[in-house]
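Q: What does the assembled structure look like for these inputs?
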Amino acid sequence: MKKSPQPSATRSDFPIYKKMESRVRTYSRAMPREFTTAEGPWMTDDQGGRYLDFLSGCSTLNYGHNHPVLRDALLEYIREDGIAHSLDLHTRAKAAFLTELNSTILEPRGLSFKAMFTGPTGTNAVEAALKLARKITGRQHVIAFTNGFHGMTLGALACTGNTGKRGGAGIPLTHVSHEPYDGYFGEDVDTAELLQQRLSDPSSGLDAPAAFLVETVQGEGGLNVASAKWLRKIARIAKEHGALLIIDDIQAGCGRTGHFFSFEQAGIAPDIVTLAKSLSGMGLPFALTLFKPDLDVWEPGEHNGTFRGNCHAFVTATAALRHFWRNENFQQDIRRRSDILKSGLEQIASRYGELASVKGRGMMRGIDVGSGKLASEITAAAFDKGIIIETSGPHDEVVKVLAPLTIDDEILANGLALLADAFDEVMTPAYGAAA
Ligand SMILES: *Cc1c(COP(=O)(O)O)cnc(C)c1O
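A:
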């Protein structure tokens, strides 16, 4: 490894943020530094400290920070007076993105989707998906799943499981039920079968659903993975009961699980797909709702927004599809790095027996230590070693690694070695001889 992380000394006083920024801030509490520049998997703070980014903006920076190909495409576009904002007027940047999305991603996968540019955040893509499903079916009820996370606006929040987040709504969150996700009751209970039984029973009390809203890997919910078999069954049940299948691929998509879409390996064809986070490839806000062409029943302007299709994001997203996804090797690279990540985490977990287990899929994996307190102590210890990393799960009990997909194999392995030290520092005293 050429460059090793060197975190700066703790600096706890940030008067301007304390004075001006709302208490609602989160990540900056656990990582109290002022960051200035970033490149690839590295972030630098104002004291010159270097950090290895194992958070990647929650999977928004799958290609790392400021990838030169994406950055240069954007700089050139701006220098040539390319249009920054156009509402939804036609622009060359938009045409290039749609063309590239179709030829590089959709057509080779045998997928045919209409693309709807929503407001720039993931939650907006989810809102659009929910509205569309309700409009098409004339039904109100939506089936979401335990530990699901879909965003903070009211429609998407109603589909989100987390009590703390739901509490912020201030009004009842209705018209959604949260059915047990794959594995919720352990390996022996087929939760798809339970759902099928209840939907087929006219007296179960479960209203006919407009849609099923599913993550194939629950990013915020603790890296729970739905099996391909369960996903296929859920897809079949949705169809049988006249509900549309929405895959929320906002965190798991754009290569995070090894393929562009996280549902590819299950061989299902969702009716609606939401994308955001890494879609622009460079951290620029950009969200997209894709749906089968025959579902395009919108009236012009029925779902609207000022920032629909950020032209700068079109440019970087197009460059990312061209640079990474036209090239078969990229998916092989992700698979190889996923193996490094998996075996590195398994090695760490194996030292603590029953007390730690590896979860997740692809480059979206972590270690469940069964306690939010321990997990946050581990991420704090890792931060002291120069690793930016967060927790996930209902009790924040999973230490989650979301390294850039482009990270150098050796840098990844070295980061995992530092993470192993952080685990050791926390787990060994916590469990003594048991660990
Ligand atoms: C992050 C996320 C969202 C919400 O996206 P925002 O851009 O934060 O609104 C929705 N669904 C999933 C699966 C996510 O990870």
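The domain at 15-66+329-431 is CATH 3.90.1150.10 (Aspartate Aminotransferase, domain 1).
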